[in-house]
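Q: Protein A?
A:
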Amino acid sequence: MSITNQNAKAVQLQALEMAREYIENNQEIPNEISHILFPPEKREYELTYWGKESREQILSETIPVPLQEDRIFPPNATVNSNEWINKLIFGENLQILKTLIQMKKDGKLKNTDGTDGVRLIYIDPPFATKQEFKVNGEEQVAYADKLSGSEFIEFIRKRLILAKELLSNDGVIFVHLDQKMVHYIKVIMDEIFGKNNFRNEIIWKYFGPTSTEKNFPRKHDIILFYSKSSDYYFDSNATLINYDEKAIKRYDKVDENGKRYKIYKNKDGSERIAYMKQGKPTEVFEIPFVQGTSNERIGYPTQKPEKLLEILIKAVTKHGDLVMDFFAGSGTTSAVAEKLGRRWIAVDVGKYSIYTIQKRLLQINNIRPFMLYSGGLYDAKKLNKFDNENWKLFALQLWNCQVIKNTIRGLEFDGEKDNCLVKVYSPQELKKDNMKISYETISEIDVILGGNVGNEIFIIAPQGQFTFAEDEVEIKDRIYHILRVPYSMLAKFTENFTPPKQPRDSDSVNEIVDSVGFDFIQPPQVDFKIVKNTLQIKKFRSNSRIKGEQKTELAMVLIDYNYNGEIFDIDDILYNKDLYVKNTKTKESQLKKSIKIKTINKKAMFIFIDNAGNEKRVVIDGTK
């Protein structure tokens, strides 16, 4: 090491010690010390803020969650096991992205041409600007985003880092934002994707009355367009818009095929013909909001017009390419992708969103089969339906193990817990080898390992697959901890669990919250009756294991007034604000005595959902 490097290292160590003192005294580290520890010249520029994690930390510490199949749509559809099926996923998108990255590595996310990864990602995240939207003519606002500043930036940045990993090598991404946050996210995207991969800023121009006495009216959103590399598909024909009348008049002649053209005179007196093209390319698209009278209108806050997504998808993908939206909302991206013959994945953490998308997709003629998955809230009865890898992933996360593959003397281990090796036996491999785990199995493992891999090993396998009852097996100086799936101490694995929070009113439909870990479905208990056109809920009890001060109340009730016995087709939604009222004395919320609903003439299904996403489904026969 040179003297210069030694001096630089000494300065950094001194700065590190000084930073430690500030941290111990709960003080912010001064910029001059931060610049020594994290020299800005290492990058051309970077957006710095409190709470910004390293890329490596985000990729390594984000917990993947296995996808549990819920059901296939349309009902009774059949798909071969090796055939692609479109995916609608309920779950927190950060964890789902990590899972999908592994699926890409395993060759399970393919475009029709065989390319691994997603060809196009479009996201329309909440803008974090306190922008107010209205729904279905209501007086109250539809939602007001809760995160702002550095919290919002880091929330989006984490997901963009994972999104880049998920893209195919020739993939692209569109991020839809408004004028208040777009400049911050632009810098973040330059960091993640590289400023040379910034392709354009697309403008969506819209209409509508705006009252602005002291400002210019806000009449557009911005869509940032980045590619993963310089190699990407682009069809400029998708960007063409119609010529205006003046341009059309200049092409004043029409040939025998009906094509308009004009004649140019060259300097030498000769003439040449110039045909009018199909349209003129642009990055500014004037498309109205989805109005209440539109056939597209489904009443979901922030619904985007299909025409906008059609332009974007056609511009950068071909038939059979994989399109993804992990803030799926009303499902515009997946609906347009389906109509254009693209493969698609839609992810959202809100049950209202999932049921809205489900209904919207099933209204498309000749809809191809798609699977509804859950990632984060599981049906314990379906555990053994996971495939080998997903079962192991579930088991590892059950005990907060790190997913780290390791092979010791030919013996494969699947993870680590507290720096100790973890081996998982899935139901599939136990059945395949026709084996159960005995003392002899543990002894054989111990012989293979020898004496160089630590004093503790964890063994995870399905309950009932062990020939002994002990939770620990000691061989010489090494202890083998036996972990059975599932097991009775259900609360243990929810210690770090943050639920996929459901909206409690129309203001919080798009509220963004990080969900961590997973839980088993615990259907709530509901005591209610229908009296004429009123819903009377006498008692509600959630069984969700949410920790902290958050109350487990009814988040919403979804209603299908004409349930056909197969598919829940959402007709109405009652939010928490519709179901509860504050007690004037105790200031605590309590269930309303009655809530107005529509007349039930046929069979109706009510889905009662707590604020962790657990459901209780009840069918009411209005004919009796």
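Q: Protein B?
A:
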Amino acid sequence: MSKGKLLAVCLVWLVLLGVGAACWKLLFVPARNAVEEQAQKELVEQEEQQRQAKLKGAGSQSRYKNQIDFHLDSFSGYAIVRSDAFSQELAKRGIRLNLQDDGADYAARIRALQSGDAQLAVFTIDALVKASAELNDMPATIVALVDETTGADAIVAYKSKVPNIDALNNADTRFVLTPSSPSETLARVVMSRFELNSLAENPFIEANDAAAVFDRYKQAKPNESLAYVLWQPYVSQVLKNSQMHVVVDSSRFPSTIVDVIVANRDFVLKNHDVVKDFVECYLRAVYRYRDRPEMVKLVIQDAKQTGSPLTAEQANQLAEGIWWKNTQENLAHMGLLPGKSLPHVEDVIANLIDVLQQTGAIDADPTQGNPNYLYYARLFDELRSFHPGDQPEKVRDVRMPALNDSQWEQLEEVGTARVSALVFARGTDRLTERSRRVLDELANSLKTTRFYVKIRGNASRRGDLEQNKQLAERRAKAAEAYLTAQGVDKNRMHAVGGEPSGTTSVTFVLGQLPY
């Protein structure tokens, strides 16, 4: 054989050996490794089964039949969820509760519900709507109301720069706040309810948390057009400065910043009785802490456990600003106690969707016009006759007391309601169809505000001045009568005829009694 042929044969064999080695490495070795890994896995599983069998054989049957992963954050309004009383009630029903603090990361919370990693969680209703819109899915449904803030959140500012809400209507105004928090919600509600059309397109300065907002306040100058949106105990700390004041707080917007317990939809459908037991146990714990001193003690204990200790004074201030919802109030919000004054949860959801859309927080309604898809009333329908304790619970009243003429004169005007101009037929007090639609929207808005309303009529300056004054008053009274017919409490409204200025519209000024 010639040297050339020998070289060619060698090359062929080298190629074949190379191909064989590659096949061995790519095919046989992984297959062998996979077999070995599977055998090792089976061995580990067998050893674990044997270990578990030994543990079980020398142990006892677990007292817990069900386990719930519950996602939340350190907000003091959730103190009852973290309480011993609640855990003890759950244990009686064979439920173990695993609390997962996600640091108020609502996007992560909604994804945990979507994936089933969380079976239950807490949200503010607005955060639930916003998170659902961003996810383009509604994996959770409301099963109970926890609380609403009634003053724990507030917008504070220098008195000289921002004496009232109308003073916020400035292109330079900025709200310093924590995004995706109740403070952002409060700012958006104010923007949607008052005539603040001069605000910048994005008037927010974002800070990581309330402590960061407070630090920004400490660096501020009195002449800056800044409003700080905070919650207790930071609100009280800011007010130690006599130059600062509360422009408006959450007590003025009932059923707006509302915390709720939500359940994964699949979980509640498959485990209805477990979720019902959970809600019932929670309501028993609410009853346990119904008295203020007991709640203050719990808040102090809870704040210490979550790493944000409070003084007794701070805990009391916080407890004053939170309204924990009892069984009867949950029933009323679910529409199961006719005649009670609390708004239906469906209307609360619809109102917040409207606020978020008006202020650009969401592009589209995640419920597609069906806010009823976001709550599950069946649980409370089955709890109509449930009583958590011996003493009866009451639905606390939210109606505003009537004012006498002297009090109306003393009313402190805080801002002008956001409302389109009313149109009257020339020289009459007759409302047009368009004006009735405007007043329908205003009625819905007023039901979620806790202010008194001065309704000021107006008229042309032409002609008889006295007759024009009377026409202005009749127009104000026509608007008042229509709003009353739409369910706005007449005690909150006071119709007056202003000095004719040439316009034919009516203005609505919101006010409060001086502190």
